[in-house]
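[Primary structure, fold]
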Amino acid sequence: MRTRQGGVTLVELVVAITIVAIAATSVLGALAAAASRSADAMVQQQAIAVAQAYMDEIMQRWVVDPNGSPPDTGRASWDTVDQYNGLHDAGARDQFNTPIGALADYTVDVAVVQSTAVPGLAAGEARRIDITVRHAPGVLVALSAYRTAY
């Protein structure tokens, strides 16, 4: 009497190896794509942090200077929101206009315009602040806020 032995044939083994290879290639391809995008996420978060830092600095300034004519001896002395209009920093800088070496690849642009978008306030009493931060290749962050003379 013959006993039946369990096992796989050569054809079944080759098919199983092929299926495992295709699955492994797909999974490794997805992991490689995710890893390449993880650096982009870090750059995006840094750009957001740079924009927020500039916005925090500007939002602490007056819309209308209570002391009269503001001094203009550099960014550290600016005390009105309007003085930031047209600011262009090739490389992020701190509030004293000192370059931050680790953020030298970021470009920051600031636009400040009078706004009538805030109900009940005249254009002279409200400003729209737009901050744009760029980092090559292709990272762009735009942040906007309103500041009023209250």
